[in-house]
Amino acid sequence: MYRQIVIVVVSIVILGAATEQATAQQLLSSNADTEMLSKRFAQSIIKGDFVNGARELQMFAIMDTVAVANAMRALPDLIAKHVVANGPLIEVDLISSTTKGKTFIRHAYALKSQRGALRCVVVFYKGSKGWAVHSFTIDDRIQDELNK
Predict the structure, then answer these.
(1) Under 8 Å CB-to-CB from 114, ≥6 apart: which residues?
(2) Continuous H helices in the chain
């Protein structure tokens, strides 16, 4: 449990340096590609290696790198609090995939531990040339997801 918290804190430091360097944006070509990318991101959090997951997400993002860095900085406290209360994160479970018109896809995952779960949502936007990450959220509002 403490190992996972330490990995999170160290990863945030590395991510801060990595997000300083802008990368060329890439696009995804299909709905299936968006689901695979969001699932890999969720799995990277479970493994305690969300720096690489965030880096990969950033390659396909239209989000500002500062917004990504800010979101990732808030993550260690959230995960640490969850791990202390509920045990280590152990599994990813797809809760829903929703398409809104022809423009948005939203994938929501439960990041499961022994006694609870966090919510991980990745939203994609379809431009004229393909899908890009519009936004992502990781929080403890899993009940909001279940009530949809």
Answers:
(1) 86, 87, 88, 90
(2) 2-18, 31-46, 50-59, 65-86, 142-146
Q: Are strands 104-112 and 91-100 parallel, antiparallel or unpaired?
A: antiparallel
Q: What is residue 143's three-state secondary structure?
A: helix
Q: What is residue 125's predicted lDDT score, i.e. its pLDDT?
A: 96
Place of tokens 């152990």: 90
In the chain, the N- to C-terminal Cα span, in Å, equals 31
Round to whole Å and give the CA distance between 139 and 51.
17
Q: Are strands 117-126 and 104-112 parallel, antiparallel or unpaired?
A: antiparallel
Reading the block at residue 57, the tokens are: 């997400």
Cβ neighbors of 36 (< 8 A, separation 6 or more) are none
| pLDDT at residue 6 is higher than 70 | no
